[in-house]
């Protein structure tokens, strides 16, 4: 919807307002793609004509701060059995090898539609599958990025395309290793070539639902001497800069062996950390690492379902928050697409790790999945039910078996700790209905679209 779109109004039985409070009878008004007024305590008799009723609990739009769309094709193929992060990565490379701009457009459209059904209104796509087989450039060197941006548009969600620099195939005591096999598709040769390609995309013009950011894939994939052009490009554009920090103990050991410092220290010294930066998988950290992340106000993105699925470990969420890091959540490998699940696992993981309860309030967890997530993706004007914010909202049904019996007092905790993506009923993005009564209005058959797109790129699916 454009800023000139028609005025709209909704009446939420219960809604989460800025400050983390649930209020009843909230009249939410919008003109075009922005909210104009949010007024709690309005009786049904006083509503303007044409106001739509939203039963249940209304949340701001959810921000998926870390996604690799194509990993969705691996769901169910890698969960069983033993294996490790590294064996999972081999399977992921097989899917990466099969994708083209056309098949990625189809797959990502279906995946982003699944996200919309889960209440996700903005996705941060950490994108590193840039080139053709063997690293051959497409005629448009940003053909894959363009496919992802088009996919988000087709699914009705906003996207921040986090263009990831990925130059080396691994790191050991001898230093960075060359890209091999499927990894050749990720590489731009050097960081200056990466910056040129990233600039070509960002200087656009980009459609209104898309913004551009940068990513350092990891210290495994970007040699220390190549960090500056990426950091400098993000600084010059005041763009978000995301990075995989310390997902596995082995990458910390490799970084120490190669450079004599932890990944957090290496990135801090290079100037990568700060309020525009997001460290994804801040999992295996020293006390000094936590201090560096906190004092620099770096955002920490947790992806607890993926981190559990890949046996990565439990990140020190409360220590990071206490040190000064805003927290966000991401679906990462798409093991599941459910940000309510990710958000509650921040608290539940802490409880398991510490044998104590009460590290984060439901409001703090909701903020991670909404306002802070949007800000980390370069959409600070989204993620709140407030006048002037982008008109995104998510209505969660309260009549499901999971939420039946909630009251205004219990609504936020019940939603954060017990609701699932399946309870999302309506989703409005930029004042436009994208999901109504659990149905995606732009992609009629989301399971069918997922099934077809996954079948096209994961050959073993076709045989079943
Ligand atoms: Zn990731």
Describe the structure.
By secondary structure, this protein is an alpha/beta fold. 35% of the residues lie in helices and 23% in strands. It has one domain (1-464): Alpha-Beta Barrel (TIM Barrel), CATH 3.20.20.140. The protein has helices spanning 85-98, 101-117, 143-155, 191-202, 227-237, 249-259, 263-269, 287-295, 304-309, 317-323, 339-354, 362-369, 371-376, 411-418, 446-457, 459-462; strands at 7-17, 21-31, 34-39, 52-60, 62-67, 120-127, 158-165, 170-172, 175-177, 210-216, 241-246, 277-282, 299-302, 327-329, 393-396, 424-429, 432-436, 439-440. The protein starts with 6 loop residues before the first strand and ends with a helix. The model has no long low-confidence stretch (mean pLDDT 94). The structure holds zinc ion (ZN).
